[in-house]
Amino acid sequence: MNNGIHLISGLPRSGSTLLSALLRQNPHFQAGMSSPVNALFNAMLRETSQRNEGAVFIDDDVRRRLLAAVFDAYYADIHKEKLVFDTSRGWTARLPALAELFPAAKVICCVRNLSWIMDSMESLVRRNAFELSGIFNFDPAGTVYSRLEGLGGPAGMVGFAYNALREAVYGEHADKLLLVRYESLTTNPLGTIAAIYNFIGEPLYAHDPEHIAPCYDMIEFDARLGTPGLHAVGSAVRPCARTTILPPDLFKKYERDAFWEDPAQLPRSVHVV
Question: Which of 12-16, 79-83, 127-131, 141-145 has the highest mean pLDDT?
Fold first, then answer.
């Protein structure tokens, strides 16, 4: 990468799209919704592994070059002066490889109480009552219980991201992580952005949380997924207090999983804002 790279990862429905929209206000930054780079990166890992008989001709040096080339090729058209923030929930599960490929890279992990993540997902489903969501394989059957069970399972959108986050937090590269609470981003956006700049060692830019530019690519992506509003961002940063729509037993099931709220559960090297 010409000017370096950082990653945005963490949990779904926790502010990563909003954070990207704010970061894009800096003309020297490139940030967006989840990109295909993580999927391409994993495909390259798979095709250079021993499952491919041609892997006998590929050593670790070649793998490093190929994996780094995924980033270089995808962002080749981005202005050379821009610092890239690539977004994917999967990056926390690839921290050892990323640390070797990009030693200076940091990972900004957006986090939120899992009960409110589940509530947010269910709210989307109910707002799109005449759409079938690709998140649930366009299946018209199911209830809030089966939907949340699928989301929270080891391979589910929320369960996988949560487990990958814990893997990174308690791993050997935890010092590369900054955990950004959804509540911090929505109630104190300028203070949160300042903490991110300090963490990545960049000079602070004057961001404007009162004027967020829309990204129409996100609207089209959500429509194709059958989940309009999945990546919607308001024109200004505003906290939103409301009552949960989840049954009480489901809300209680997930509300104690926010381990980042207890400093005693975190390694000293992990920063939380």
Answer: 12-16
pLDDT in tens, 151-186: 999 999 999 999 999 999 999 999 999 999 999 999
Q: How many CB atoms lie within 10 A of CB 256?
A: 11
- The contacts of residue 46 (CB under 8 Å, 6+ apart) are 52
Dihedral of CA atoms 176, 180, 181, 187 in degrees, nearest 10, equals 160
Distance CA 256, CA 252 (A): 7
In the sheet where 29-31 sits, what is the strand order?
29-31, 83-87, 5-10, 107-111, 177-181, 271-272
* CATH H-level superfamily of 5-272: P-loop containing nucleotide triphosphate hydrolases (3.40.50.300)
Q: At what angle do helices 37-47 and 60-74 cross, to 10 degrees?
A: 160
Alpha carbon distance 179, 9 (integer Å) = 9
Report pTM: 0.89
Instruction: Look up residue 43 and give its two tokens.
Output: 């495909």
Half-sphere exposure for 256 (CA within 13 Å, toward CB): 4
Reply yes or no on whether the pLDDT at 51 is more than 90: no
Beta strands in the chain (DSSP E): 5-10, 29-31, 83-87, 107-111, 177-181, 271-272
Burial bucket for residue 45 (CB in 10 Å: 0-12, 13-18, 19+): middle
